[in-house]
Amino acid sequence: MPELPEVETVRQGLATWVAGRRIEQVEVRHPRAIRRHLPGDVHFAAVLAGRTVTGVSRRGKYLWLPLDSGDAIIAHLGMSGQLLMQPADAPDETHLRVRVAFADDGPELRFVDQRTFGGLSVSEGGAALPTEISHIARDPMDPLFDDEAFVAALRRKRTEVKRALLDQTLISGVGNIYADEALWRAGLHGARPTDALTGPAVRRLLGHVRDVLAEAIVAGGTSFDALYVNVNGESGYFDRALNAYGREGQPCHRCGTALRREQFMNRSSYSCPRCQPRPRKPLR
Ligand SMILES: [Zn+2]
Fold it and tell me: Which of 112, 163, 228, 252 is the right S-S partner for 272, CB 3.0 to 4.6 Å?
């Protein structure tokens, strides 16, 4: 799944290309891509035609395009969804699902999705914050993210620290890759009980989360299977800067110990046995 840096990369590209443009016509090529839009494809195209995209917003891993009608287009990238800008005369992609053409002669917006887990929907009145997304916590790159409230909430929870980082109602945008990277930087094993962490330790961890997300945004995100691309179809290169994720058996960049892989929440977790010892007292 794309995490905050990959989605932010798409957001920045879209903001450059679609903000302020008026939609002329929407073509739904595959009904599954708009299955979350319950009124169906004819309604989807009708409510968008003639509307102007006023910006591109993001919270955590969620992206939406506010419209001058007060509604918003929500984009779910899923596993393989791509939002691409293409000249109108460019050949259709094999997995093109939705085409958005604008009233000017500029490039069109195409939603391309190989595995069709993603999709688009219209959120009525959702321009400022779609109700579909309102339960998601602010992400740590949001200027209104409340550091002290996060520190207190995490320490109150009786859970494991990696599980807390992945809890989108506590902090959004962090997934498996960036959680492992932040925990490696903080020297914390993901199974450490949150209620045993000190305030300064949680603040340090939050600082590492922010650093790793910021660095990954500059790199255009992490690309593992060539599906996470920006609006021009280009891959990010943060995979070259990873210290933990995907590095089982390779030397720790800090101490040289071979990194280990463990199963956690049905996913692989990567950590250094020496820098990130397992907790002596795991969560009971
Ligand atoms: Zn190490």
Answer: 252
